[in-house]
Automatic annotation (TrEMBL):
Keywords: Glycosidase, Hydrolase
Entry similarity comment: Belongs to the glycosyl hydrolase 43 family.
Residue ranges annotated for the Beta-xylosidase C-terminal Concanavalin A-like domain, each copy included: 308-423, 463-514
Organism from which the protein derives: Micromonospora gifhornensis
Protein name per Swiss-Prot or TrEMBL: Glycoside hydrolase 43 family protein
SUPFAM superfamilies: Arabinanase/levansucrase/invertase (SSF75005), Concanavalin A-like lectins/glucanases (SSF49899)
Record-level Gene Ontology MF annotations: hydrolase activity
Amino acid sequence: MTDSATFGNPVVPGFHPDPSVCRVGEDYYLVCSSFEYFPGVPIFHSRDLVNWRQIGNVLDRPSQLELPPDTHASAGIYAPTIRHHDGRFYMVTTNVTTGRHLLVTATDPAGPWSEPVHLDVPHIDPSLTWDDNGDCWLTVSGVESYRIDPETGTVLEGPVPMWSGTGGQYPEAPHLYRIGDWWYLLVSEGGTHTGHAVSIARSRSIRGPFEPGPVNPFLTHRSTDRLVQATGHADLVQATDGSWWMVLLGIRAKGQWPPYHVLGRETFLVPVRWEDGWPVVDPVEETMTAPAGSPPALAAARDPGSYRDDFDATDALAPEWISLRERPKDSWSLTERPGWLTLHAAGTTLDRSGATMVARRQQHHDCRAGVHVDPGAGRAGLTLRIDEAHHYDIEVADGLVQVIGRVGPFRQVFGELSVPAGPVTLTITTRTDDLLPPTVTAADQVTAPGAPFGVRPAACDTVSFEVLTDDGPVVLAELDGRYLSTEVAAGFTGRVFGLYVTEGSAAFDWFDYRPSARS
Ligand code: 6LW
């Protein structure tokens, strides 16, 4: 008998919200929202529910993913559901920019996925279930369901009203499960921020009526001091050993008062136990205990998440790389200069969505990302971005490296240095501020010996920008990270590190990302 063991959360760090999960044999697959980025709907594989490796993107062709030029930050693709039925994988999601749900299928979850079938049904957060007769049901926010033909998208019946939670704001993220003799309906409510909650009901019939569980919401961190907040938008999965698990989104806010979160909504995992036929979960922590023998208990420690790309591939970019709305074929190349990623400017500024950029999510609070870039006659750099109006950039052009901050209507150069022509190494480091550890409450703060009375504003992190010179690294600027947070920028995404070019062409030899000790 293996002892119980701890595992680390979030299991998919960085902006990976609205997780949906399914199991096929010993393999688990998970998808998340992707909003204004292309390709869309990252898909991950795991054998233990703790270590997830991205194996592709479900929507990786423009014909599957319409993101028109006016697609703004946090629009586009919301809340996918992944299911496996009769030897096929199904993924259904909403493109809020076009106002349509789309359904695609695949036999290999790594792709290729089919061209989409569109569903003429209102609301968001579609989910799929097959009933005992083999009929397919689409459940959406509200909460209501429709019997559909998944091959054509035709609605055959509905809307059938379901159950709308306990009265919280936005009943959404519904999922229906056949467990024993019951149909369980999982619903999130309370909005996606700190009021977020997960509730449950059940019925003998897929059409209801649904009887609410005895304790609802059965998971919420609202109005608590917990580090992990906004817990909701969940999906259940039964592991190979029979144990039950729930994936869900949460945020980790830093700094006080108020706390700021910069990594967006991340994917967490919690064990589920059943009491009198109802699911029960403990609060979501960064370190959790997995029952003995369960896949998370058997997992090796979680991968620390370092990443390096030397751009030695010749055919495709790794699936983790995302671009804004689209990635036109003539905007990038891995073969023009072998071993380098060449980018050609499509737009002149990162302040609009047409810029040429390939980006990766920031996944740790404390981390360092660097590039070795040859700007040639162009203008190129590395940005830390949450949206078009909130980004810090370090870029090089005409022998001058500059650090530029764009926050709302303001744009300013914060540091610069002349460098010799040719390739240059630029880095961005984020360092969590510990002016107040997140566990210190306001009361502790004012009563601690020597503490100043009242509330001190604290940055959530410090972002520093460095250029490597012959005399060693030179820090050009250190900026307050709060301005690149959801609390300032709003929206549903988190930060990304982006390689970009806004004039001419430039080539990147490598990108290196590593978490620092305190991440
Ligand atoms: C998603 C909704 C939500 O559709 O946020 O947190 C929306 N929950 O369910 C966008 O991610």
